[in-house]
Amino acid sequence: MFKQIIKIIWKQRRSNGWIFMELLMVAAVLWYIADMLWIDMRVYNQPTGYDTENCWRLKLYDLNSSVAGFVSEEERTTTETEDLIALMENIRRETEVENVCASFYSHPYSWGNSWSSLEPVEGDTATARTRSYQTRRVTPEFFDVFRVKDKHGNAITPQLPPGEPCYVISEDMEKHFFEGKEGKGQRVRNNLQGNSVLVAAVSTPIRASDYDISDPCFFDVMVGSRLELMVKGFNASSAEVCLRMKRAMTLEEMYLFLESMGERLTVNNIYVYGAYSIAQQREDIIRSYRNESRTKIALMGFMLVNVFFGIIGTFWLRTQHRRGEIGLRIAMGSTPGGISRFMNLESLSLLLLTLPFILLFVGNMAFLDIIESGRIPISWERILPVVFATYLLLGIIIWLGIRIPARKAASLPPAEALRHE
Fold first, then answer.
1. Separation CA 420–CA 368 (nearest Å)
2. How far apart, in whole angstroms, are the C-alpha atoms of residue 273 and residue 259?
3. What is the dihedral of CA 18, 24, 27, 31, to 10 degrees?
């Protein structure tokens, strides 16, 4: 039957040519949109490397010298670092708080943009010297607050040497530096600091947001003099003090909780004046990505609706012109169901003939680097599923679009159909 269908398509190539071109253009555009949506969904569903549920960031500020309670330098008995640690301890003692940490431009969805050059003491230093890596400066509690695990799924905090500055590198960096060897226990050198630092653990890959892929990065675990140096450089009020609550809270409940702490939220000149949910910050950051995805879905839906009505109109007209042929088939013994199946197979075969041209189009787009390749590399594992999904969707639309005119044509009395022959 397929051979017969091909002959009919070729005999009617003048009218079929326009339908073929329409299907070819629609398949190309739909594949392009579907490919972008597939990348977004694939990247979105990958683990981010952290958990921000019930996590909040506190807003810190310094008391003004004109405000009552301001402590001058002459009256101070503690350093800013000690004040920051004391503030965190005050918060940690609360029964509703699970844990508290501090970081500098490093908490999830903060868009921290701190980069440093890093190279392994023993490993491939040639590639390391050609690039910089994102640095996340955090206190040891950071891994508990955001539940960052090592690559084996274990807690990281117990693996850190107490009171000693160290690094935690991501699994991407381990592969980049040590080529199949264990990164834990190795030493790396930061060109800014000069001395080598212990790699205490290897975390899972870390992503900046739900729509970004992971890149090699490392955590600079701040304790002792290292934390003191960061506070001196950026001030304690610039620290990202984040906490994980034991239960979900609304913004109003969080502010009531802070009010209940009263003066414990002030240590010398540092005080907490508010908080915001990191989950809400996440929503604000990925909103533009989601809006873009919705636009792609709306565009695809609009195209599919137009294809649906276009196919109905096209095949309705074709059916009107082929009444004689349909009458002959019915007179020769074809059933209404057989007529309907034949017309569906003819249309789907016409769609299938566009496949080699679509594959050529996709290959050309990949060769010219027009389609995205940064987040997911171009491969047959990416191209074939999207092509299959595109043709499956078009096939369903064609089947639905032909169903009405095909059934109407099949129900035509043979005498009436033969009158047009």
1. 51
2. 10
3. -150
Q: What is the pLDDT of residues 204-238, one digit of tens each?
A: 999 988 888 888 999 999 998 889 999 988 888 88
| Pairing label, strands 196-203, 166-170 | parallel
Which segments of 210-368 does DSSP mark as H helices, in order? 225-234, 251-261, 278-321, 323-331, 336-352, 355-367
Phi-psi region of 185 (alpha: psi -120 to 50; beta: other; left: phi over 0): left
Would you state the pLDDT for residue 5? 67
Q: Full-prediction pTM beyond 0.85? A: no
C-alpha to C-alpha distance for 48 and 219, rounded to whole angstroms: 15
Please state, as a whole number, how many other Cβ atoms lie within 10 Å of the Cβ of residue 268: 22
Alpha-carbon gap, residue 119 to 190, rounded angstroms: 7
- For the chain, give every domain's residue range: 2-47+287-418, 71-268
Is the CB of residue 336 less than 8 Å from the CB of residue 410?
A: yes
pLDDT at residue 328 in the model: 65
Contact 63, 80 (CB under 8 A): no
Query: Average pLDDT for residues 184-195, to the nearest whole number?
Result: 78
- CA dist 244 and 97 (Å) reads 6
Neighbours of 245 (CB within 10 A): 19
With contact defined as beta carbons under 8 Å apart, do 140 and 223 qualify? yes
Question: What pLDDT was estimated at residue 325?
Answer: 65
